[in-house]
Each structure stands twice: as structure tokens, then as C-alpha cells.
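Sharing a chain and its predicted structure for anyone who wants a worked example. Both blocks are below, sequence first, C-alpha cells second.
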Amino acid sequence: LLFIALCGVTTTYAQTYKSTSWSANFYLGASNMMGDLGGSNFIGSRGIFDLDLKATRPAIGLGTTLNAGSFSFGLNLVATRLAGNDAYSGQEFHLNRNLSVRTDLIEADFLVEWRPFSRSKGFNRFYIYTGVGGIYYQPKAEYNDDWYKLRTLGTEGQYLTDGEGPYSELDLVIPYGVGYKFRLSKSLSLVSDLGFRKTFTDYLDDVSTVYPDLQIQRDNYGDLSANMSDRSYEVDGVGEPLSIAGDERGDPSMKDFYLFSAFSVTYRLCHITCW
């Protein structure tokens, strides 16, 4: 059904383009998360200004694309492990907060590419794109040489009586970006891509709002939950948590954000006439 629908879209360009083609894509690149951890001298996320190169992690993926004139329509699956760490910042607030995370993430997306200069030599393979996607994400943190899922610990009091409940493991994303395709042969192309992902969650890094009452947290959900909520006690010379209930832990007004920078190999499988 998807194939029929996409082929139907190409009829608008029937007078100019005589065929479409399918291609398979293999994606290898890097990811970087801009969230509440690390980054600039602010509480919370400031988008691209929170870029920490030390937080860069590998990303892999695959997909298929239908090429039709100046447009392409792609389905893709990408996996990565996002990272955030207050130690990457160097700012006093972040260093004292002392939180870190790794977030396993899988993204499935539908992308529409447009080559605005498809008839100009030199720029004909430049493209811009947008689309819609969904992600599964699982923030974790290390404690005493073991990794724990933070969502289940309710580090901001989500499971307490007045808490909001656990955040979802699923979210929508809006992908957008730019790229360029270098043709290596009649069927093979190397693609350079820079893509951004707008999310609708502030919990990619498990940090968003305020600290819970650590004693209530400890009494109801154990030492591990309280210890992972406020890790300032691990900073040299502190020895005990610095927060009190209601202190800012993050900034919920800015959603988390991540990006991909990658090269992919595209192999054209076949030509198909759609009319």
C-alpha cells in the first residue's frame, strides 16, 4: 500500500520524469544529545548551545528510499546510545549536581527529501529533508559498577503519591536536516548527512524538573532510588546530598534534542515505471 501511494505521488511529475527507482541505504555515523546534563552555563537544555563533543556516540541504521524526480521518500531505522554527563560541562552547577546518563535509543522514521537544485550542475545532489518519526528510549546510569534503568527508579518522585507517574518510553520526533549525495557509480552513492531531531519529551536524560524529598524517596523506594536522584554526595568534599525537596534539578520548559551526523551508502536496486 505504501508503494502504491508513493508511486501515485510521482504522477504529478510525469511530464518531466519518466521513472522512479528504489534504493537501499546503510547508515553509519554519530549522535549527540542536547539535554539537561552538561552543556552550557544554564539549568536545562539550550539546544545546540549544549553540544558536548565528549558526548558523541556511534549510530547505525538502514532503510529504503523511493526516488522520484526532485523528491525522495524514505523509511529508516536507526539505533544509537545517547550520552550526557555533567562532568563534560566544567560549570559549577553541573559539577556539583554530578549526574550522568546513557540512553539507548531506537528511531523509526519516514522522511521526505527535496533536491531544490536538481537541474543545476554541482548542486544537483544537495537535498533538504523533513518528516516524522517515533523513538523508543531507555535512560540508564552507572552505580557501583552496575547499570540501572532510571525510569523505574522515579528519580524525580514520579512514583510518590503526588508524583506525575513514570514518563513514557516512547515519543514522537520531527526529523529535519540537509545532505549531499556523491555519486560513486551508476548504482552506488555516498551520502553525507546532518540531521536534527525535535522531541516532545524532556526525559531523554531522565532530568527535567525538581528534586524529590530524598527521605520520603528512601523510605518508600529504597536507598538506590534516593542515591540516584541526587548524586552530589559523590563530589569530593561534600559527603551528603546538597539538595532539598523542590530544588531545581532540570528545566522542563526546554525539551531534549539530539542530532545525527553521518555518512551512508545508497545502492539503487531497480527502476520502476509508475504509470
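Comments welcome. The chain is about 10% helix and 45% strand.
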